[in-house]
User: What shape does this take?
Amino acid sequence: MDLGLHDRVVLLECADETDRQACAGVLSTEGARVVTSEHRDVDAAVVYLPLVPASSLLEAGLADLRRDWLGLEAVVTTFQSVLPGMTSRGWGRLVTVLSGSVKSLDDESDERGAVVGLAVLGLHKAVVADVARYGITTNAVLRDDHSDPTEVAEAVAFLMSEPAGYLQGVTLALDGARRSSVF
Amino acid sequence: MELGLDGRVAIVSGGSRGIGFAIATALLAEGASVVLAARRQEDLDRARSALDTAHPGRVAAISADMTDPSGVAEAVDLAHAFGPVGIAVSNVIGHVIDKSKEGDGPPAGTFVTSELSDYRHEFSQLAVSAWALAGAVLPDMRAQQWGRLVNIGSGVAREPTKDLPHVLPNTVRPAVAGLYRVLARRLAPDGITVNSILTGSILTERNRSYWEWLAQERGTTVEQARSVMTDMIPARRMGEPAELAAVVAFLASERGRAITGQSIPVDGGINRHL
Assistant: This one.
């Protein structure tokens, strides 16, 4: 399938080295130009929020909550910086990579990731309502600590692709049916 | 992106027109062989000859009732000429607005206007067809320890519509999504993924019938009715069948092997749930 990413400029924000290399590798194979800092003409942006496996909200302190919240702020800042260019060009792809615990809280879930991840999904809906009409899509990949970084990156690449242009405000969960929620 | 579908064998119900035809087209383009199953012979002949020209020797078609296990078995038998089935897309239509264009199915209705027999008819069209297809291809998929089941469902499975006479899909679509969700959990150890697509805003013959129905209902022109519907879509446009087909091709691919048990909206942003 031709993803139509050749020569597209993709802003990649990901603190984890393994995840970043996997994502940059898949996108480069598709011919995209991956940049890691602010760039004027970004066609697509992906922000990975950190995963905290088996995190507990009851054991979290205020400092933890504030640090988690910085993830939401990073998404807002990135979207703000790239949306004017995408809007004027009439094409854009926004993708976040979140914890699968936004869908259901099973044993050993990333509870802290659920809180900030749900804030990001709420933000996605608002962004879709505002900018979907300009050919900009906003979607999320959900993962957990079992997820393969390359599979996550392939799902990111698909969401950024030309053929995925009618997906708006959706989540693609890579959990191999481990979670128990119906939807 | 290499999807890894070369040599795979697929069955697509409702494959002669609209969304099903687009899915067959996408799978063929990725190297799969495809059996189209639908009712109307003349639509099947047209679809098969168009696809066979582009992909000689990889397309077959059968007129079958996919709500009847014996009809499904005939389609699977035909597919075996290509090899064991690895991909099955369930895409049977539910209630109909215009019987002459859309084929068999109970009439659209509300709770007040619908008969018990209409619910059973809808159940047969949507749930029995999805169940029968999954059951018929399961032995092949288990033997290969590889399979892809995709149901083409509707956004009303998660968010029932209140503005249209939709009591039948509002009731039955969630049941089908539940059926496929349970199968996903049971079949994951066999390397089989099971997913649902939720839609309703793809540009097909059926949606054109809706505009005509809505125009008549509200005393507007068809063009006005069309813009009432597209204004409700954040993307401000209907989706092309090929856009839905691309998502199905990705789910069916080697790349999509970790994605299972999901209900994925392909709707330009109409869905409201997080």
